[in-house]
Amino acid sequence: MSQDKNLSVFSSRKHKGQALARIDRERKMLESGSHGVQRLVLNIAVDFIEKYPSMSWEQALAAAWGYCDRTYN
User: Fold this and answer.
1) Longest dimension (CA), the chain
2) Fewest CB atoms within 10 Å of the CB: 3, 15, 40, 68?
3) Which bin fits 55, alpha (ψ -120 to 50), beta or left (φ > 0)?
4) How far is CA 71 from CA 2, 14, 61, in A?
5) Which residues, in sequence order, are CB contacts of 63 under 8 Å at separation 6+?
6) Does the pLDDT value for residue 9 go beyond 80?
7) How many angstroms separate the Cα of 63 from the Cα of each of 11, 28, 30, 41, 70?
8) What is the pLDDT, as a whole number, of residue 10?
9) Which pLDDT score, from 0 to 100, does residue 62 have?
10) Would you give the DSSP letter of residue 33?
11) CA torsion, points 16, 22, 28, 34, in degrees to nearest 10?
């Protein structure tokens, strides 16, 4: 039982670390210059299309803008 708990704690910490690293990378991109916001939105839109291949480009852009708005505003 404690082994399962240790694995879930490790998994939780690993997931949290990955999320924090992603946010740090996104912040750096936002602060990289005048085109930082556009670069971030395009990268996130591409990520959405890779994860959901049936998603249209317009849907992916809308989802990316929504993600950025919710996360960084």
Assistant:
1) 52
2) 3
3) beta
4) 35, 21, 15
5) 44, 45, 48, 55
6) no
7) 27, 21, 17, 9, 10
8) 74
9) 98
10) S
11) -140
CB-CB neighbours of 36 under 10 Å: 15
What's the pLDDT tens digit per position in 22-61? 889 999 988 988 999 999 999 999 999 999 999 999 999 9
The DSSP secondary-structure symbol of 72 reads H
What is the spatial distance between Cα 68 and Cα 26, in angstroms, rounded to a whole number?
9
Instruction: Compute the distance between CA of residue 45 and CA of residue 7 in angstroms, rounded to an integer.
Output: 33
- What whole-number distance in Å separates Cα of residue 58 and Cα of residue 60? 5
Single-letter residue type at 11: S
Average of pLDDT values for 51-73? 95
Q: Which residue has the higher pLDDT, 61 or 5?
A: 61
| Residue count of the chain | 73
Query: Residue written as tokens 């740090």?
Result: 24
